[in-house]
Amino acid sequence: MRKYILVCGGSGFIGTHLIKKLVNEGHKVLSVDISNPMHQESINFEFIQGDLRDYSKCIEIMKNGPFDEIYQLAADMGGAGYIFTGDSDADIITNSALININILKCCVTFDCKKIFYSSSACIYPQHNQLDALNPYCEESSAYPADPDSEYGWEKLFSERLYFSYQKNYGIDVKVARFHNVYGPFGAWNNGKEKAPSAICRKVAEATNPGTIEIWGDGNQTRTFLYIDDCLDGVQKLMDSNFHGPYNIGSEELISINNLAKMAMEISGKDLKFEHIEGPMGVRGRSSHNLKVRSDLGWQPETSLQEGLEKTFHWINHQVQEALQTK
């Protein structure tokens, strides 16, 4: 069945891939974002440029409905260099909370039936992520709450906001906690890039032989989820009778040092590390997928090696293009 779908934050990394997937499946898509689309020239969808912090703009957008589904990806976010310095905490909380409150109020006004909300693994407590080799991020472990960033606190608040609207207004809410989604078309050089893109950029820009900078000692661990697997998990959630929250992530744990080594091997470069001070977040974080495997039958299929190869080659191309235009 062809659906009419609204994607909020459609010009972002995940939104860009999601819109392509939805259009290829034959759905009609309206995208809204404060920024113009990128990497979407050959995709047939509607676009409205607008600031979802403005309630009147949300009303204007929702009048284009009714929508069969809404994907709420819009947020003030970025990688560790943006989230964990503390310099943007007030903006992060205010901007994202305004967006979510406005969208949910409009969902009630325009009788929207189903909405997906993208939460984050940043909601998990610091005390469960002190051991780099044994982090614990099972869904129910979110409480007692103690996220390590204001970004995580806002995401946790917004989860409760969405489920409150489900309880009081009957909206079919779906919530997933994303764990470090990466891939081509993501931020790679604007200060908001996540670890895989930042590492790939550093390796691509480095002379051979040479050095790259790593924040901290590099022994902090994470798991990284390739974008195609992320969208598959979201679709399984949207097509189910479950609501979440569910972890949508990989369980392939790796240190930042070893992630950099993997990128170096892909590049063929002989590089050394220079460890410098920088925001690192928690010591270890890994998705815990027992619940999502049991309820939705989902698990990622793309290995980190495979996904990082695709990501590195895309970022390397961007780096080479940038050098040619100088």
Describe this structure in words.
With 326 residues, the chain is an alpha/beta fold. It folds into 2 domains: 4-182 and 225-248, NAD(P)-binding Rossmann-like Domain (Rossmann fold); 195-222 and 253-325, UDP-galactose 4-epimerase, domain 1. The chain is 40% helix and 17% strand. The chain has 10 helices and 13 strands. A 7-stranded parallel beta sheet has the order 3-2-1-4-5-6-11, with helices on both faces. Strands 7-10 form a two-stranded parallel ribbon. Strands 8-13 form a two-stranded parallel sheet. Helix 6 (195-205) packs across helix 10 and helix 8 crosses helix 10 (304-325). The radius of gyration is 19 Å and the shape is globular. Belongs to the NAD(P)-dependent epimerase/dehydratase family. Residues 5-249 form the NAD-dependent epimerase/dehydratase domain. It comes from Marinoscillum luteum.
Query: Which stretches of 5+ consecutive residues score pLDDT under 50?
Result: none
Distance between the first and last residues' Cα: 48 Å
Q: What is the total tally of β strands?
A: 13
**Percent of residues in β-strands:** 15-25%
Order of adjacent strands in the largest pleated sheet: 3-2-1-4-5-6-11
What is the name of the CATH class of the largest domain? Alpha Beta
Q: What's the CATH topology name of the largest domain?
A: Rossmann fold
Principal-axis shape equals: globular
Structural class: alpha/beta
Integer average pLDDT = 95
Radius of gyration: 19 Å
> What percent of the residues sit in helical stretches (DSSP H or I)?
25-40%
Helix count, DSSP H or I runs of 4 or more residues: 10
